[in-house]
Amino acid sequence: MTATTQTAQQPKDFGFDADALALKDVAEKFFQDNLPTQKLHALVAHDSNLEHGTASNWDTDLWQQIVDLGWLMVGVPERIGGMGMSAVTVATLVEQAGRAALPGPLVPTLNASYILHACGTDNADAALSLICEGKTFSYAACNQFGSWEHDASELVIEDDKLTGEVHFVQDAQKVDYFLVNAKLLNANRGGETTLVAVAANAEGLSIEPNAIIDLTRDQARLQFDQTPIDKEQIVSAPGKALKALHLATPALLVTISADMCGAAEWQLQTTAEYARTRKQFDRNLGFFQAVKHPLADFMVAIDLARSHLYNAACAIDHEPDTAEQFARMAKAAASDAASFGSAKSVQLHGGIGFTWECFVHIYLKRQLHSQTLFGDATYQRAKLAELILNQDGETA
Amino acid sequence: MSENAKRDTPEQQEFRSYCRDWLASNVPPPPNFKPLRNGAEVATQEHLAYYSAWQKSAYDAGLVGCDYPVEYGGGGRTRCQSVANQEMLRAKTPILPGAIGLGMAAPTIFFHGSEALKQRLLPKLLSGEEVWCQGFSEPGAGSDLASVQTFAERKEDNKWVINGHKVWTSTAQFATWMILLARTDKSDKYNGLTYFVVPIKSELGKSVTVRPLIKITGETGFNEELFDDLEIDDSYRLDDVGKGWQVAMTTLAHERGAGPLTTPMSGGQGLPEVRESKDASEPNAFPLLKLAQGCVRNGNPAIDDPVIRDKVMNMLIRQIGIKQHRRLRGVSGLADRERLALQDKLLGTEYLQDAAALALEIEGSAGTLSHFDTSAPDRGRWPLAYLSSFGGTIAAGTSEIQRNILGERVLGLDKSK
Questions:
Q1: B273 pLDDT exceeds 50?
Q2: Lowest mean per-residue pLDDT among A248-257, B13-22, B175-184, B257-266
Q3: Cβ within 8 Å of A, B 341-380
Q4: pLDDT tens readout for residues A46-93
Q5: Any domain includes A9
Q6: Which one of A345, A392, A394, A395 would you mutate to disrupt binding with B, by most B Cβ within 10 Å of its Cβ?
Q7: In chain B, what are the domains?
Q8: CATH code of the domain in which A36 resides
Q9: Which of A11, A45, B12, B21 has the most other CB atoms within 10 Å of its CB?
Q10: Span A333-337, mean pLDDT?
Q11: Best interface-test mutation with A: which of B1, B90, B284 has the largest number of A CBs within 10 A?
Q12: Do A193 and A253 reside in the same domain of the chain?
């Protein structure tokens, strides 16, 4: 990879065109109408006993509407029947979903669509066709330590059988398929990373839910015991899985960053509304600079994160060589903004912010969960440093 | 630049190629001193002579003041100043010294001055023949600008008599004129202000005293001015009596680059860390990365220290974020432009301060060395940059005021006063 100036090949407007604007407006209105915060609270916070799990915390009728709108296939190429929209367009859609804290496997399925697209095989295209039909996917790759490194998976395929455990799988109890990262063991290709599509009801697969803090998602450990794998299920080309994952990485970081930017905007607006109306010492809270200034800082952090988000998305579309670098910046910026703003959203609500009935904890928990996905801010900065310093070594 | 050129009107297109031709052979050689980064830094006669000559030459060529009407000494063009600014930046010209005049006084006079004042003042302002300074802040009126106490008392024969004390004034030692915000009614804070243009050079040693203030960097450039029964004619008033606050808002909007007129700016504008140059957008040319590779900490390159590395990456992310933030500002449909524009000053100035502080941390003991010590890393730029950075976070509305503005104008929170 060589150092490049990012504006040289990117359109100035991030490629945000009339189609993108139209989709953004539709999505904004859709979530305002169909998932107002009151409804979200009833949906995910009806039960305060965390032991009961979060798997049923979603509205399957609302989900069907989302499927019917075609939003699972916005990033799927048109030749396979998808909408083939730009990454910037997808990012602005996900931002709106994040603002509504949508429960449902939208981001996991979009992520799978990017990985499958990067695989570029007939089997991957067949899996993309399933997405176009409304089927949902989740990418399963983490080891027990929660590593998102592409070669960290401890699953193995031996004699056409998939065996082992994979951890931190998102929305595992909601999706139809898993896009599984495993090591293919055989005489010729020992331990080579391979991607396979496995149905959620496959033989030998048990889904063991985690008890999680985030009320808007579910997460599980998958246990595979001699799950049979057909050739058709192998979606990566021989020896090319890591390359495909590397290619799709910026998109995975962009979708989660978009979700966080949207959620952060909800946190900002909700807390600002409280500061405009809640009175103490005979004044609205927002009068006090100890309240006003953190909200201003949160706003600036959100807008910086959004600037990175669109730049990274635009790089995916127009300048893939720099996309990973910019996507890591976006995830770091979004994670830091979320971390700062989540804390402020609870703190500035005071006593009511500490209660289950106040809405802010739903977003706090979603953001805490999102911060960790695909690596937190510190991890992203470490990866960014590696990218830049390696680049420097090559060009010096 | 090609992106800019693509959107040109025919007039802009023709003017752009004229600018390029002219700049190809008329950019002066660099000065014998360390080049300045903005007009407010002009502190010595040597600075003034070098940069005024450049302003005069660019003005004579039509690159400065091109959008002002011909009768006020301008070029009579339409939306061409931004073209000239882009081309001057591209040609890496010296800065224009008349930051107060070109950036603040000229648009204010243009929008609020009488016909006679515009004809008298604008030509010599644009050419740089007359230097301007800004008389807004006072010892008792900093962030709370509307509390200025310098008093203009109306006399008979259309005269005003001014008494008071202005401070933190760049280029007053060279200035022929001052834009002055004065109180004309003690009973009404905002509606008791009136805006004047004041000839100060001709009154020096008489009713006007200009004294240098030394900045925390040891540099001069700042001044304070005392007015002792300075008498001026009523024709030097801008707009109506009592309208001074509104007129001052025009000045401040242009200072922030948010006014209706594009003001002339050339080459050196902005600091290298945030400037949209080719170098700055290449992460591996990021100055703090280079610094951390060159400095030693615990026997190893500082960049190998994971904490330093994390901080350097964080600063790089902020720098690129600012660049993308400005890009986002131009995309309607994606951006609330006012919300983003109001963040710009805070973002830029706090970034420079934090970046300089990090540079000092990376340098360790060597960060104690000023730019006069030949062994200082990066030619000793960072201690000075850190000290200077407080000019950015304090002047033109402190960071605290910027946060008030964001909370109040964007989030609709109650005013903190």
A1: no
A2: B257-266
A3: 343, 346-347
A4: 988 888 888 889 999 999 999 999 999 999 999 999 999 999 999 999
A5: no
A6: A392
A7: 2-130 (1.10.540.10), 133-255 (2.40.110.10), 279-410 (1.20.140.10)
A8: 1.10.540.10
A9: B12
A10: 98
A11: B284
A12: no
Query: Range of A48's domain?
Result: 18-135
Output the pLDDT for position B379. 87
Q: Any chain B CB within 8 A of the CB of A306? A: yes
Among candidate residues B357, B344, B319, B326, the one with its CA nearest the CA of residue B397: B344
Number of folded domains that form chain A: 3
Of the residues A233, A249, A264, which one is the last residue of a structural domain?
A233
pLDDT at B417: 76
The answer to whether residue A80 is domain-embedded is yes
Model pLDDT, residue B40: 75
Q: List, as one string, the DSSP characters of B53-90.
A: HHHHHHHHTT-SSTTS-GGGTS---SS-HHHHHHHHHH
Residues of B in Cβ contact (< 8 Å) with A307: 321, 324-325, 327-328
Q: Do B313 and A384 touch (CB under 8 A)?
A: yes
In a domain, A285, yes or no: yes
Angle CA A256–A101–A149, to nearest 5: 25
β strands within chain A, DSSP E:
137-140, 156-158, 161-170, 177-185, 192-199, 205-209, 219-228, 279-280, 283-284
User: Are the Cβ atoms of B414 and A276 closer than 8 angstroms?
Assistant: yes
Considering only CB atoms, A307 lies closest to which of B281, B285, B325, namely: B325
The secondary structure of B137-188 as a DSSP string is -BTTBSSSGGG---EEEEETTTEEEEEEEE-S-TTTTT-SEEEEEEES-TT-
The string of DSSP codes covering A85-120 is --HHHHHHHHHHHHHTT--SSHHHHHHHHHHHHHH-
pTM above 0.95, yes or no: no
Asked whether residue B275 carries a pLDDT value surpassing 50, the answer given is no
With a cut of 80, say whether residue A115 has pLDDT above it.
yes
A219 touches chain B (CB under 8 A): no
Cβ–Cβ of A304/B322 closer than 8 Å?
yes
pLDDT at B211 over 80: yes
Q: Which residue has the tokens 């890009």?
A: B327
Q: What is the pLDDT of residue B304?
A: 96
Residues of B designated catalytic: 255
- Subunit contact B407:A293, Cβ cutoff 8 A: yes
Flag whether pLDDT at B373 surpasses 80. yes
Please report the residues numbered 152 through 171 in chain B whose beta carbons come closer than 8 angstroms to any beta carbon of chain A.
Answer: none
Residue A4 domain-assigned? no
Tokens of B147: 């509390």
